[in-house]
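Input sequence (361 aa), recorded before submission:
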Amino acid sequence: MLKRKIVVALTAVGLCFGAGEVAAKKVLLKVPVFFGTHLEGLGSTPKWLAEHLNVASGGTVKMKIYEPGKLIPPKGILQAVAKGKVNAGYTTPAYNTGVLGDKGSLFSSVPFGPDAPEMLAWLYYGDGLKLWREMYAKKGIDVHAIPCGLTAPETSGWFSRPIDKPEDLEGLRMRFFGLGALVMEKLGVSTSLLPSKEIFPALEKGAIDATEFSMPAIDKRLGFHKILKYNYYPGWHQPASVYELVINGKTWKSMDKQQQSVVEMSCKAAMLDALALGEAIQFPHMKANIEKNGVENRYWSKELLDLFQAKWEEVVVEQSAEDPEFKKIWDNLSTFRADYAIWNEWAFLPRPGTVRIEKAE
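Predicted structure, token format:
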């Protein structure tokens, strides 16, 4: 009799779990990505996210990744998601300035701006993420934006010859990203924002003279070292770069709170993984560039770094005058940074081995 009761009880439990599984609403996010997943530490992040999100959600939220151009052209991802042509996408606001204006780039990377820890602090515990989402809402773009990728500083240019003085930049045609491109244009550089797969052919054909793209491990895959032998640091234009998962607004609202929470948390985990991976894989490629590829690593002179920063400050004044929303975001970030500077000044040892540019008295 007892055995019969146990069997009946277990059967009832099994039926309850089975009913729960049938009733569970499953979501498949079809995600076109801006960067190829072969680009380790950049394009590999959404692939990592897809694998872990499936497990973390118990299979109730899955992602299918579409390589650049396979489903939606990369530059059309944001609008396609907003209009419901696809229900999600992986991009960064700085690639959508045609829709958002240059203020969008403030949520991607800021010249002479926050490094990764400070950027995360502003986004999650300042007003950064709130302002980011407000930007989309004010534009009537029906997406839920989630910070979902993070890279450490990039190199700030590959050149065919040394750049020792401002005049050496004049007349160059260069692939350049984000707000840093506005700085370079003030110095006589003609900039274009080519996607990764078009950069090497453009260099080969002489359509451009120089380029920046990402960190050494990623630049290695694109072959810049085969043509250009002077690689400049530090990444003044991108001290940290943030990427986003955008989910169609209706799709996001259709997800239950548990599903939404697991997506948000998985994106935070993806940012941590991307940052850790990016920090771990650069030095072998830098060594190979020097020892095998004949590349010379160079650190910008104080004169040129000061010039880049002065021109950046001009850009800020101009953009703030043109766009009140840019000014609002910039002022908020600047206020946060002014307070953070107290912590930054006292808390950290200088990075061992880093070339330091002394502040002017």
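Checked by second reader. The first strand starts at residue 27 and ends at 32.
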